[in-house]
Amino acid sequence: LNSTSNWTKRVYTLLGLLVPGSHFLPLSRQHLDTSNFVPVKDFEANRLVAGVLQLPSGTNLVVDETAMSDGQLTPRGLTNLTAVGNLIRWQKLDYDFKYHSLEYEADVPVLIL
Fold this sequence. Notes:
Layout: H1 2-18, E1 22-26, H2 29-34, E2 40-42, E3 47-49, E4 60-64, H3 75-90, E5 92-96, E6 101-105, E7 110-112
Parallel strand pairs: 1-4, 4-7
Antiparallel strand pairs: 2-3, 5-6
């Protein structure tokens, strides 16, 4: 397990040397269940809370599928996994405004390890 994680980090480090912007995203069950991948509107503070997938245009996203493990995802984990799939397939990211969501286009090349 340690050697697999080390290998993916090395690929990410190499990519980071070649491109102007990159972001590493491990798809572990814990990370999927506890993080917000899409931006969410906080109405109490009246601000938009950034999500993991809210990246600048042209940022290369490196998705580490080797971090996955067996088990059941929570509803938040499923929402986050769906957001990753939508970003990969359609280059679109939903912004969650609690009562509705808005879809924004993205320009994020994705490398899946």
